[in-house]
Amino acid sequence: MGKIFIYMVVGYKKLISPIFPPSCRYYPTCSTYMIDAIRKHGAFLGLIMGLGRIFRCHPFIRGGYDPVPDHFTIFRNKKASERYRRSINLK
């Protein structure tokens, strides 16, 4: 089941995404995040995490670095984001 979701996201990245200008506020992008979440947490939980990330990606959010966490959550990976900001000497 996970492979089907991954193929769907890869199809989106290759066929639909190039039509629109880049607009994801996070790194890695939302589609890459969903693929990583499905691989790391399985089809069901990874899909939920990916959809949560897509709902968080809107013009009123700050964005930034947000990798897939090691545990299941639909919230932002704040610890990884803070470590990244400190590593490049940002507050």
Automatic annotation (TrEMBL):
Where mainly found? membrane
* A GO CC term attached to the entry: plasma membrane
Protein's membrane topology? Peripheral membrane protein
- Write out the annotated subcellular location: Cell membrane
Matching entries from InterPro entries are given as: Membr_insert_effic_factor_YidD
Q: Which UniProt keywords apply?
A: Cell membrane, Membrane
Q: Keyword Thylakoid: yes or no?
A: no
> What family classification does the UniProt entry report for this protein?
Belongs to the UPF0161 family.
Primary role = Could be involved in insertion of integral membrane proteins into the membrane.
PANTHER family recorded = MEMBRANE PROTEIN INSERTION EFFICIENCY FACTOR-RELATED
Q: What is this protein called?
A: Putative membrane protein insertion efficiency factor
